[in-house]
Amino acid sequence: MTVNRRKKLSRYRGYSTHGYGSKKKGRGAGNRGGRGMAGTGKRAQQKKPGLLKENPDYFGKYGFKRPQMYKKDDRIINIKDLPEKQEVNLTELGYSKLLSEGIPKLRYNITVSNCSKKAKEKIEKAGGQVITK
Q1: pTM of the predicted structure, to 2 decimals
Q2: Domain locations along the chain
Q3: Is 88 left (phi over 0), alpha (psi -120 to 50) or beta?
Q4: Of 32, 66, 103, 112, whose CA is between 20 and 30 Å from 10?
């Protein structure tokens, strides 16, 4: 049969220190350096030998995922980055849009799924043509 023992707390009633010695020592979490993971700061990793084994991701930054609205699947290319060929099929090369930065070096015949107005004007001005699908 087990013996019902009084809780320690009730035994300490009437004693102002509750077993901590000085009155100040038992207040708050100051005596034990804080609560929980307090004091495991990033500076003294060598002083926390068990922490890295138990939780290896505790130290360091791990970023966040950008919202979907900022992701763009369009692969774009500028006129200045076009290859040195007159016949260019950008959709076969994996590009989905042609932009107007740069000056056309040749009379390009370009096939692309999407193109900016300014890029189309520049290539047609240079004597080439843009075919959009």
Answers
A1: 0.47
A2: 70-132
A3: beta
A4: 32
**For residue range 55-100, what is the model confidence (pLDDT) as tens digits?**
777 777 778 877 766 666 678 899 999 999 999 999 999 898 999 9
Hey, what CATH class is 70-132 in?
Answer: alpha beta
Which two tokens mark 67?
A: 């919202």
**E strand spans, the chain:** 76-78, 87-89, 97-99, 109-112, 129-132
CA distance 104 to 125: 9
- Residue 124, H or E segment: helix 117-125
Give all strands of the β-sheet with 109-112 in edge-to-edge order: 87-89, 109-112, 129-132
CA distance 98 to 104: 12
> Nearest Cα to 108, choosing from 128, 131, 132, 82?
128
